[in-house]
Each structure stands twice: as C-alpha cells, then as structure tokens.
Amino acid sequence: MLPTIAKASLRENIYTLPNILTASRLVAAPFVGYCILHDYHAMALGLFAYAGITDLLDGWIARRWNLKTVVGTVIDPMADKTLMTVLTVTLAMQGALPVWLAVIILGRDVGLAISAIYYRWISLPPPKTFARYWDFSLPSAEVRPTTISKYNTALQLGLMGLATLAPVFPAVDLATPLGVMQYVVAATTVWSGASYIYSKDAVKILTPTQAGEEKVEEKQKGPR
C-alpha cells in the first residue's frame, strides 16, 4: 500500500497559511530596502518587525497544525536571506553597515544560493524541464539549516534590527553594541557557511518514494 500512496503523493499542497506568511515576507523585503534608502526609518522598522513576527508565527503554525511542507523548508530560509540581502545592501549603501561585513554576508549567501540551485536541479525527478524546476509542489530536496546557521540568522537579524532602530531613536547611543555585534556576526557567518560544507544532514535529496513516504508519515503522526 505504501508505494501506491507514495506515487499518488508526489505533489503537495503549497497554499498553506505558513507558506503564505513566508511569501508575504518575501514581498515585504524590497519595501524595507526602499524605506531605508529614502530615509523612511520608522516605516522600515515597522516592516522589519512584521517580518520578524511572521517568521516566528509561520513556524509555530506549521508545527501546531501539522502544515509543514517541503517547499516551506526552502522558501522560509529564502525569505530570511532575501530580507537579509536587501538590508545588508541598503544599510551598507547608507553607511550604517561596514562594507567588509556586507561582503562577508553576501559572499556566503551567494555561495548557498548557487548550491541550492544545483541541488534542486540534480534532485528534480525526470523529465528535467524549466517549468518543472520552478514547480515547487514537486518536492525534490529538503534543506535543513545547521545549528550554527540558525544562531547566525538570529544574530544577523539582531544586528540589522539595531542598525534599523538607530536612526529612529538618535538620542540612544548604539555605537558600542553595533560594533560588537558586527564582529560577532562576521565570525558566525563564516562558521555557518563552513557548516553547510561539512554537515551531512544539511541537504537531503528526496526520491519520489521518499517524498511520498514523508507525507504519509506526517499524516499518520497527526497534529503536534
């Protein structure tokens, strides 16, 4: 029975509330950058707060009502990295972030993006077509962030939050904590990038049968 169910479950429902919230973070990212570049600091801070809240909320909803999807494991870190890239570039352009740190952060993310494109392609079930490549209802590879990567993401968001907060409250001197955070983030960014190279569990290639089996197991477990 299991192989039969697995074959019938090659596609998954990607239109879940957690995925919609994640998509909204992707949409919000360029608006955050626009606000920073045009000195709408309060609005930029508000959108940044929205991104942080929805980031916590979509994960909680996915776990609480068993709405985890393979595509969610891909677009969730993608949304985080898109926001991080926009913040890094725009804050560096405004002089709120050192250029050397922006190069480290962006360099790591470019490397991970190239790796993600590669793994998506080699793991895509045949036939390998451009349309099927962008059809994320076809699960092919599952990304599992390493522990240090999770800490690094939190630290990066903390740094970007401080840098975004500083112009809104100019009376508060945040120079010292910003300086310390910059060096901590630089170290953890390099460390997290290396962890993806040496970790065996960071990327899991899913065969069609495995994709179906994981969906069946999730259904059998029920809501957590």
TrEMBL record:
The keyword DNA-binding does not apply. GO terms for cellular component: membrane; mitochondrion. GO terms for molecular function: cardiolipin synthase (CMP-forming); CDP-diacylglycerol-glycerol-3-phosphate 3-phosphatidyltransferase activity. It comes from the Eukaryota. InterPro entries: CDP-alcohol_PTase-I, CDP-OH_P_trans, CDP-OH_PTrfase_TM_dom, CDP_ALCOHOL_P_TRANSF_CS, Phosphatidylglycerol_P_synth. It is found in: Membrane. It is a multi-pass membrane protein. Belongs to the CDP-alcohol phosphatidyltransferase class-I family. PANTHER family: CARDIOLIPIN SYNTHASE (CMP-FORMING), CDP-DIACYLGLYCEROL--GLYCEROL-3-PHOSPHATE 3-PHOSPHATIDYLTRANSFERASE-RELATED. This is CDP-diacylglycerol--glycerol-3-phosphate 3-phosphatidyltransferase. The lineage of its organism: Eukaryota, Fungi, Dikarya, Ascomycota, Pezizomycotina.
